[in-house]
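Bumping with the actual sequence this time:
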Amino acid sequence: MKTFSTGKITFEYPNVWEVEKADILSNPDCIATLSKGQENIINAVMFPTATDLDNFKVFMEDSISDDGGVILASDYTQIAGMDAIKLHANRDTPEINFDIHTYVFIEDKTIYIFELRTLDISGESEREFKNIIESFKILK
């Protein structure tokens, strides 16, 4: 296992995942991008917010549906000692069909969104993603 830390957040991730250079030019809220091969990518963003989990859940579901995604599950959960939204969706484009797994936290008027986009149907990448989320900590 390796540790990712920005000074504001930290999490552990398996050695088979690689930290990519965060694309802060096109996405200034990006705090981490990890990949495993060509078929799995995790993006993590954080930014100030005045919303709460209830309102963001509706917004996120609408955004995915409007984008052509199909929501397979969207639930409240507790993970890493915090309340969160856990969402699973599928997106089918002419080029590719992929699953989206998302965890959203809102703590102290800051939103943290972790999204896995994967072609892995074995469930292995999803399990690794969940383990990463379970190790997520906000540093005070």
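The tokens above came from a reply further down the thread. The beta strands are 2-5, 9-13, 18-20, 30-36, 40-48, 69-79, 82-92, 97-107, 110-118, 137-138.
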